[in-house]
Protein 1
Amino acid sequence: HRNVVHYSVLFLRWLFRDGLLPEQTFFVGFARSDLTVDAIRKACLPHMKVADTEADRLSAFFSRNSYISGKYNDEGAFSNLHSHLLSLPGGAEANRLFYLALPPSIYHDVTKNIRHQCLSTKGWNRVIVEKPFGRDLQSSQELSDHLSSLFTEDQIYRIDHYLGKEMVQNLMVLRFGNRIFGPIWNRESVACVVLTFKEPFGTQGRGGYFDDFGIIR
């Protein structure tokens, strides 16, 4: 499912579809699963609302995709990944952006292997670490220290979806503390409030991850 989300967003959220990425942008997936780009495409299509006029653009998008299978703690697998990246247009001069949508428990191995095996020698390198950023304050600080030992701060981007909780909690403060919203955020002006969770599945296949980082831990 996570593959579906990320591939769908890259295309549908106007990034590739509307030409908002550099022309020579290529997408390389890396994971333990034995997959192909064709299999990923078939899994994504039912979840992607693509107009007939966008079919050619979608084909162009997937033609820029490739996939490498390997273990996260295997230096040889990351060496193979690096060789594949060198084979793409731009080679060693290309910029590299590594997006880690992974459990925090394997960030150490992955980031270490990226640092020692996969960095561009002439272009810039960036690492995006997606939530959850650790499971508590101590593990979060340890992960931050680990990343700082491998990359400079301007190379690291952290995404933690849980940070949105504070924003939601502050909606009442935003309403009553702002002259613009106070008079209009009421039952006369707001027809309804809708909370949508568009996930047609549970924790199938992700029980261990959910136990460590989910709401019941």
Protein 2
Amino acid sequence: MMNRQLELREHIANLIEHHSRQSNGSHPTSIPSLFLFRQNKMTVPTHGVHDRSICFVFQGQKEVMLAQELYRYESAEYIAASVDLPVISQVVEASPEAPYLALKLKFTPEQILEVIQESKIPTHSQEHAKRGLFVGKMEEPLMDAVKRLMQLLDHPEEIPLLAPLITKEILFRIMQGKYGMALEQIVKDGGGAYRIIDAIEHIKQNFEKPLRIDDLAEIANMSVPSLYRHFKDVTAMSPIQFQKHLRLQAARSLLLTEPTEAAEAAFRVGYESPSQFSREYTRMFGLSPIQDIKRLRALNA
């Protein structure tokens, strides 16, 4: 069985190399929910939002930091996010001879619900919400399904029919495992995680506006203490910390892509005090806004 898994891993790695044209970076595919990743060297820590998706690794190693929690995953492992989460990520093992090779598959709550309804997977009662990020190992049936999804890239006429079916199979394989509850909870009506999704979406869409916890609790249809508890269970941070991450990431993007002063960027993402913005920016990114953007532009030159 180990030989079979090794063959599958090498086969999928070769498919990623082929369809990424051995070019570093992120590569969209003819399957809208599927993206390929290749990197032939270690990368610097990158701040961003890990969207609802599963990232499967077939060569190399990567680390993701969620709040103060470190997640490390490597070949034959995957990391899954059941909700959108602000993280810091870094490829930590890659070389020209053995590049980091991975693929990301996005999914929707509707697909999770379909899998539960069609497969009759037993659901679980959950007193506490599960963390929205987890790392798992790929067993042979899961890896085989991923291989078949990748093979569709060579048969585009089959994608409309088969890609949705194989995607559901991949979700089914994961939900059969010990982390199935982390995916199940996002569609379980009445559960804490299910209601927290609305709160997360509200913060994402309105991060530049003042955050009123009472309003957020009303959106999630729960008490303020319950909101804080479930929000931290899922995201590893408080609503205010979540908003702060989104604001600072948005400000960094503005400073990097537009001719914007730090004070203007601060106001545009919701800060009233430029000095507070500068302090929090420096705390998160390790340098002042001016120094950080100068460094990033030098790296990208």
Protein 3
Amino acid sequence: PVAHRLVRRGPQVVLYDQRGHGSSTVGSDGFTIPRLGADLKAVLEAVDVRDAVVAGHSMGGMTVQSLATHHPDVVAERARALVLVATAASGLGRGRGDAGARRMVTSVGVERLLRSGFGHALLRGAVGVAVHRNHLVLTRDLFVACASEARDGWLTAMQAMDLREGIAAIGVPTTVIVGSADRVTPPDRAAELVATIPGARLVTLDGAGHMLPLETPDEVAEALTVIDAVA
């Protein structure tokens, strides 16, 4: 939804599927946060962009941070602004429910679970109160379409990550967007990002949850358009 809105407003939009998601295979390089940054580096170099607004949602936001941490020269050369949407730099392994969450996301029966009433409640917990039922279904379908191997690998990597030292050196304008009702990467994770990245700006969307591109596409597209105009 966000990409469609941006294209109508004029900017060139480049999208790609992360490893193990959509049409991208798992690959043979393993599941590591540095690998995410290297993949994004390859995309930016392939399209040969020099003044990009580089944006990422959730794991995509971690990918942008990994690029800034492990390839700061690429950010300096090819990005004029960064946008981190519903994401975190650290802290995803702190919760007491992590073991249970991991069992759920790696289970071969996860699709059956998410189609149940309990699964519907779990999905509701990941989004805001006003989300349309169709978006819940899409969230579920995106999740179960990701290979179990990829879910396990990326969850392990994200629970161990700590990108705070690297992002403290970011030198381009950065905007952090978070939903006030996000339970996956809650507002305190966004506050940590803003406190760590020099000059970062925080945008909080009241009542929204984790799936901001689906829940609030107009607001996210507007934020990206404004950033593109002033960066």
